Amino acid sequence: MSGKPDVWNHDALAVDLARKLMHDGKVWCWLNSTIGAWSGPRPDVMTYRRYTYDNPQIHAYEIKVSRSDLASDLNSDKWRKYLEHCQSVTFAMPSGLCHKDEIPRECGVMFRTGRGWRVERRPHNIGSGCSIQSMAKLLTEHPLRLAPPDGKYLSDWQRDGLSRLAGDKFQRGAGERYGHALARLARDVADGVDPAGKAKEQADKIIADAKAEAESIIGWLAPACEAVGIKLDRNSLWGLRTDLAARVRALDTDARCRSATVALEAARREIDRALKNVPSDEQLDAA
After folding, report:
1. Cβ distance 130 to 48 under 8 Å?
2. How would residue 121 be classed by pLDDT, with cut points 50, 70 and 90?
3. What are phi and psi of 112, to 5 degrees?
4. What residues form DSSP beta bridges with 27?
5. Are the beta carbons of 153 and 12 closer than 8 angstroms?
């Protein structure tokens, strides 16, 4: 934080950074967990981007809140041990604690300002890919789950700033979605129109249109139903399907009867034709 690096302690800054890096659940985070063996190096924050199966990578972040701690880490090259299991290392600290050129060029640099985190320099991917052992160990510890900021580590002016930012974000997101409806509501109120009464009128109109459409459908179906012996009215609509199915079955029976009659008539004509070709007794005697 510009001008106020002492506002943050180490743990509060780590939690704040993790909340930023999690990116609405798209990134898993671990705080103060060892990497590799159980006695391996312990970055302050580690991240893993979810759903990257082909090339899994762990990125390490070192939190610094004092010049002495930063100098000790840089002089001992402690951060290089993380590269045995992590793809990159980034130093994260309050703004004003140091200049980015004081940090090795291979490392990333992030500063926490009053407006949030700023990436001053992105890290180089000079480390190793995540081993199966490292990933299995981290997953057994479970990624971090952070609740929304509760203001525990924030000053009053920071909480007010975050509230304003959240309000602005909601306004931008909801403005497009609800803007027209709210504008119509405001116009109706200004014109003296009762929104509840107007909504009731619209509901009554929808119901009336539905009833009119039902009457139209009944008027269209009635002649066809009467042709097959079904008297149609509004109260009989629920049983119309069953009645029509029964009529269809009856019509099918009549059709089969007509088909049988036609077949019998054809057979009788064939019998008559055959009888005409049978010789009479006189013809047989003469022969």
Report:
1. yes
2. very high
3. -95, 115
4. 49
5. yes
The residue written with tokens 């005409």 in the block is 276
Neighbours of 152 (CB within 10 A): 7
Q: What is the pTM of this model?
A: 0.49
In the sheet that holds 59-63, the strands lie side by side as: 27-31, 45-49, 59-63, 88-94, 108-113, 116-121
**What's the CA gap between 162 and 16, in Å, rounded?**
13
Per-residue pLDDT band for 101 (boundaries 50, 70, 90) equals: very high
Size of the chain in residues: 287
Query: How wide is the angle at C-alpha 9 spanned by C-alphas 7 and 12, nearest 5°?
Result: 100
Say what angle helices 156-190 and 195-227 make with each other, to 10 degrees: 60
Q: Measuring CA to CA, which residue among 34, 32, 27 is closest to residue 14?
A: 32
CA distances from residue 280 to 83, 226, 268, 269 in whole angstroms, order as listed:
118, 57, 20, 20
Q: List pLDDT tens digits, range 176-225.
A: 666 667 777 777 777 777 777 777 888 888 888 877 777 777 676 667 67
Paired residues of 196 in beta bridges? none
Q: Tell me how far apart the alpha carbons of residues 223 and 32 are, in angstroms, rounded to a whole number.
A: 81
What are all long-range contacts of 43-49, with beta carbons under 8 Å and residues at least 24 apart? 43/82, 43/86, 43/89, 44/10, 44/14, 44/92, 45/14, 45/17, 45/18, 45/21, 45/92, 46/86, 46/138, 47/21, 48/130, 48/135, 48/138, 48/143
| Degrees to nearest 5, angle at CA 258 with 252 and 262 | 145
Report the chain's mean pLDDT, rounded to a whole number. 76
